[in-house]
Amino acid sequence: MSVAEWCFGQSVWMSLHERIRRQNRRPDTDDLLQTALLHLFERGLDGIDHPEAYVLRTARNLAIDRARREKRVRFSSLDADDCVEPVCATPGPERVLLGREQLERVRRAFALLDPRTARIFLMHRLDGLTYSLIARRLELSVSTIEKSIARALASLALALIGDKLS
Fold first, then answer.
1. pTM
2. Fewer CB in 10 Å around end: N or C, the chain?
3. What residues have CB less than 8 Å from 30, skipping those under 6 apart?
4. Mean pLDDT across 108-136
5. What CA–CA distances, in Å, run from 155 to 78, 107, 161, 164?
6. Residue 154 · residue 112 · CB < 8 Å
7. Which of 26-30, 45-49, 120-124 has the highest mean predicted lDDT (pLDDT)?
């Protein structure tokens, strides 16, 4: 019996494909099976008692070889989606200018806060103190602290988005 007769006589393609996919857990199962069958066609069935086992073992060896090769040399796809401009870590002059403008607006808004609200905000954001700890230190209620933080955040947020609203 020839290799072709064996393949056509047994309709084993799907069975082999599924077994190779489960055995190797690789995305290139089709290629592994095709290459393994090509090896079988080139070699012939002489001396092979179990052609199915031969194909499975050949596919396994091919998968091992490919995994070793991939470890040594990393290939990357050059799909159209992947070809984007590299991102520069340093901001451009426009972004620097916008950042400085935002910082100045926040500084002005912070300067307009009443001293107690500004102090509470800094104790919470810079010192990392909890509302209850700030309340104990300043002998105020937690509710007062919450309202002060909310007032400070609202003022600073409005300063940042003020240009966008007008």
1. 0.44
2. C
3. 17
4. 93
5. 48, 11, 10, 15
6. no
7. 120-124
- The three-state (H, E, C) secondary structure of the chain, written as one string: CCHHHHHHHHCCHHHHHHHHHHHHCCCCHHHHHHHHHHHHHHHCCCCCCCHHHHHHHHHHHHHHHHHHHHHHCCCCCCCHHHCCCCCCCCCCHHHHHHHHHHHHHHHHHHHHCCHHHHHHHHHHHCCCCCHHHHHHHHCCCHHHHHHHHHHHHHHHHHHHHHHHHC
Token duo for residue 147? 């309202």
CA distance 97 to 74: 40
Q: Which tens digits make up the pLDDT trace of 30-76?
A: 777 778 777 777 777 788 888 888 888 888 888 888 888 877 766 55
- Residue 154 is predicted with a pLDDT of 86
Find out whether 162 and 105 touch, Cβ atoms under 8 Å: yes
How far apart, in whole angstroms, are the C-alpha atoms of residue 98 and residue 96?
A: 6
Asked if residues 125 and 153 have their Cβ atoms less than 8 Å apart, the reply is no
